[in-house]
Amino acid sequence: MSKNILHSWKNTPLASRVEEGSSKNFKTGSWRSKKPVHNKEICTNCLQCWINCPDNAIKVKDGNIDKIDYDFCKGCGICAEVCPVKAIEMKNEKDE
Amino acid sequence: MIKKALTGNEVIAEAMRQIEPDVIAAYPITPATEIVQIFSQFVADGKVKTEFIPAESEHSAISCCVGSSAAGARTMTATSSQGLALMHEILHIAPGLRLPIIMPVVNRALSSPINIHCDHSDTMNARDTGWIQIYSENVQEAYDNLIQIVRISENKNILIPSMVMTDGFVISHGMENVEIAEDRKVKDFVGEYKPVQTILDTDNPFTLGSLALFDSYFEIKRAQEKAIINSKKIILEIAEEFKRKFGREYGYFEKYKLDDAKIALVAIGSISGTIKDAVDSLRGKGKKVGLLKLRVFRPFPAEEIKEALKNTKAIGILDRSLSFSGQGGPIFSEIRSAVFDLKEKLFVLDYIYGLGGRDTTQKEIEEIFNNIELETREDRTIDLIKYVGLKN
Amino acid sequence: MSSLKELSQRKGGITSGHRLCSGCGAGIMARQVMLAAGNYKVVVACATGCLEVATTIYPYSAWKVPWIHNAFENAAATISGVETAYKSLKKQGKIKKDLKFLAFGGDGGTYDIGLQSLSGALERGHDFLYICYDNEAYMNTGIQRSSATPKYAATTTSPYGEVISGKREFRKNITEIVAAHNIPYVAQTAVGYWNDLVTKVEKALEVKGPKFINIFTPCQLGWKYGPEKTLEIGKLAVETGFWPLYEVENGKYKINYKPQEKKPVEEFLKIQKRFNHLFKPERKEKLIQEIQDNIEKGWTELEKKEKCLN
């Protein structure tokens, strides 16, 4: 679960400002019922999955697919659909 | 210092020129139009560095102000009546985002029926939006209030937007001799605006205006309330400094022959001048009457008002707006609540007057004093709320 | 245009942990827009809506750039204020950097309640890019019809019933309304065409003055399809001619993609349950044909504009 950083009214940040990118502390991976599994063997690193992921959950390193970030992947399956070589397969969470 | 004959609108435009904000966004509306009209000419003539946004509505004008102030610019607008009503949604947002926007408001009645003349229904309708609200009795006060308010709103412990009120036509179009300070003196007084945080700071990005639910909204709003409460202290500090530098004295309110008064009126805005004349006249006849002219309506100085009125026997509140079946007008309910726990019972009566610009005369004010005396003597408070000058 | 390899090197403007639905088109749209803007220092204003709500739930924010939300109908006015403040402070030498200004609004915040504010900002000529993410209804409040909802789509305030078959009117053409403001750059693009989308955003950011891009943004919850189909639906909208990819650059029209042969609109309609009643219990041929005819009419008009205004 995400860390609770809510505070007393006396410590409310000015104008209740929120720090940039802090949603990284709120994991959405638990929403998933199906899980994309990436096969590096057949992946051509075309990055179609990366550019079309709504959750920024596909990690690219030096132009290649590095991994799927299961902390945030909501399991929509867009990556598997868009993959031209079927290098991503959707599997049931419980099968893993 | 220069003495000049100016109208309320002219003096506000003049103060705005001297304050020289970074951005003004506004939309024309009677009787406030002249303010931005005059200011537009300053912009056209290159007399100010200000960028002017001629917005397509008051709603957008105040929305532009929110964006501009969040971007760290000293930001102003001006409006009246329907314009203020159209802004209403955003009026709540500006203090929520802690943006020290400054807005002169020329008081005018709200529709329907449409009317262009003065009453206070527009700004009373905005009294719980979280803005600092300061009312002016005359042209000089309008000028002085506007200069002081910049420092109050922009104080880093406050950061709350402010409205400075003038009565429509009575002050906005009424010409008076006023003292205008040198530009340098005003600029030195208001100083340069240094925002605490700005969304133009791309090196330190943050999110402003997030969604906060039941786990945090309450705390955020309480923190905001504390900021406007904190402004009480600053208002007096700035008034003190203003007195030292400009020679004129201000507080939360002005006590006019109040200290030994048995019967007093409480009023805001231009009617106070008429009341002062009535007080003088009645004092000449041996009546112990006085006036508490309220200047600062938000933050509401309840304790100080209670203290100032504690020796009176009865007070009449002059409300220039209706709350339509509420327990009296908005000033009445605030003041009556403030004096409720005084040891000596204080009679408080409400006198609704001047709606839609209806003139209230010195004679009518004197009658109010007499009426209060009568009601009190007979120890009765029938007709808690009365209507001054209403045709029966 | 930038390649995906190049884009993957850029710092994105929006990160994970937001609470948009699984498979949300707006999530894809926002990521791609912010990647396209990734080479600039940008400030974002966002109208109330799904994108705003789901990305900034206190005390979390998915935005990595300065970001402001004011209200529903005033993203354009808010960014006008931000941009003007920048202009003023820059003129005074109080700020040195070059910044770009972006506003996001959904179709409700753009076509409907925010139309006046948008029109005002466009007319005043502020230097900003307005992104409309058009998901064809008020999704944040629970799928109510907007003036962007297509004819015969079922929403919670234009439901289909015994006597009415969903929304009764054709949608408003906001892109053409914006183009009528004679601003330097207006475009339509769609989720499903990252290249077209990114290219248009990059192009727009190089233009001075007001710019507008209308992005077709499928919504799995409101349009009622499986979340994995978001790109496919975007593609079908374009392949059927329902949503042409085009731009208006200084008044000149250019259709960016012309399908060899347009697919029948039915293919776009039948995979979304919001159009279910057009096919079940019996096929409503007349209504489907009416939609098809309207597409042909729109496409012909657009081609005429491309021919005449070039």
Give structural notes.
The complex is a heterotrimer of chains A (96), B (392) and C (310). Chain A is mostly beta strands. Chain A has two helices and five strands; from the N terminus they run E-E-H-E-E-H-E. Chain A has helices at 48-51, 78-82; strands at 18-19, 34-38, 58-61, 64-68, 88-92. The longest helix of chain A is centred in the last third of the chain and has 5 residues, at 78-82. The radius of gyration of chain A is 17 Å and the shape is elongated. The model of chain A has no long low-confidence stretch (mean pLDDT 93). Chain B is an alpha/beta fold. Chain B has two domains: 2-246, Thiamin diphosphate (ThDP)-binding fold, Pyr/PP domains (Rossmann fold, 3-Layer(aba) Sandwich); 253-387, Rossmann fold (3-Layer(aba) Sandwich), CATH 3.40.50.920. Helices cover 41% and strands 19% of the residues of chain B. Chain B has helices at 8-19, 33-44, 58-70, 81-96, 121-124, 139-154, 183-190, 217-246, 271-284, 302-309, 330-339, 362-377; strands at residues 2-7, 23-26, 51-54, 75-76, 102-107, 132-135, 162-167, 175-180, 206-208, 253-256, 263-267, 289-294, 296-298, 314-319, 347-352, 385-387. In chain B, strand 6, helix 6 and strand 7 form a beta-alpha-beta unit. In chain B, helix 1 (8-19) packs across helix 2 and helix 6 packs across helix 8. Chain B is globular. In chain C, helix 8 links the parallel strand 5 and strand 6 (210-216). Chain C starts with a helix and ends with a helix. Helices cover 38% and strands 14% of the residues of chain C. Chain C has twelve helices and eight strands. Chain C has a single domain (4-308), classed as Rossmann fold, CATH 3.40.50.970. In chain C, 59% of the residues are buried. In chain C, strands 2-1-3-4-6-5-7-8 form an eight-stranded mixed beta sheet, sandwiched between helices. In chain C, helix 2 (25-36) crosses helix 8 (194-205) and helix 4 (75-91) packs parallel to helix 6 (115-124). Chain C is of the alpha/beta class and 310 residues long. Chains in contact: A-B, A-C, B-C. Strand 1 of chain A pairs antiparallel with strand 9 of chain B, so a sheet runs across the interface.
